[in-house]
Write a structure and sequence with these properties.
- The structure is a single chain.
- A 6-stranded antiparallel sheet has the order 4-3-2-1-6-5.
- The chain is built from 3 helices and 8 strands.
- Helix content is 16%, strand content 32%.
- It is globular, with a radius of gyration of 15 Å.
- The chain is α+β, with helices and mostly antiparallel strands.
- A hairpin with a 2-residue loop joins strand 2 and strand 3 (58-64).
């Protein structure tokens, strides 16, 4: 099972009923991950790890541990769906979306682009299905140039 699929599956119990995941990625705050070249202990002890879930209603921040940052432990908070994390560049892209410097690895930059592209949509009415900002269809894969992914309007 791919990491993104695991993140989606592990995040689902922390969402409200009917809330649809649009994108999910991992992020960390604290010292730059580049410091791990000097000492992994600096990064392990000085960073906070999150699984960020962009849904049709809002952005859900899930706490994660330094030992297994892909396993959420609980809800750290919710942000408005209009919150944007990009644009990102480099191996460890930096964002100030959480109110402090947040580092997002390049493997998740495409997921951030998807989340940001859907940030402008109108909020869903509770109990009603969300109308996707991007219609269903085949789109260029942001992580694999030359390949395509199918977007069904929710995932």
């Amino acid at each position: 099972m791919a990491l993104r699929d695991k993140l989606r599956e592990r995040a689902q119990p922390y969402l409200e009923p009917g809330e649809q995941i649009q994108a999910v990625f991992m992020a960390q705050t604290g010292p730059s991950p580049w410091f791990s070249a000097l000492s992994w202990l600096i990064v392990m002890l000085g960073a906070k790890y999150y699984v960020v879930v962009a849904t049709d209603r809002n952005i859900v921040l899930l706490n994660a541990s330094a030992m297994v940052p892909s396993k959420p432990k609980g809800v750290a908070g919710r942000l408005p769906r209009s919150t944007r994390f990009g644009p990102l560049s480099g191996l460890w892209g930096s964002s100030m979306a959480l109110g402090r410097k947040t580092h997002i690895h390049k493997r998740f930059h495409g997921d951030v682009e998807i989340a940001d592209s859907m940030a402008g949509g109108a909020p869903a009415v509770s109990g009603a299905p969300a109308s996707p900002a991007t219609p269903a269809g085949w789109y260029a894969d942001p992580q694999n140039p030359g390949a395509q992914r199918y977007w069904d309007g929710a995932a």
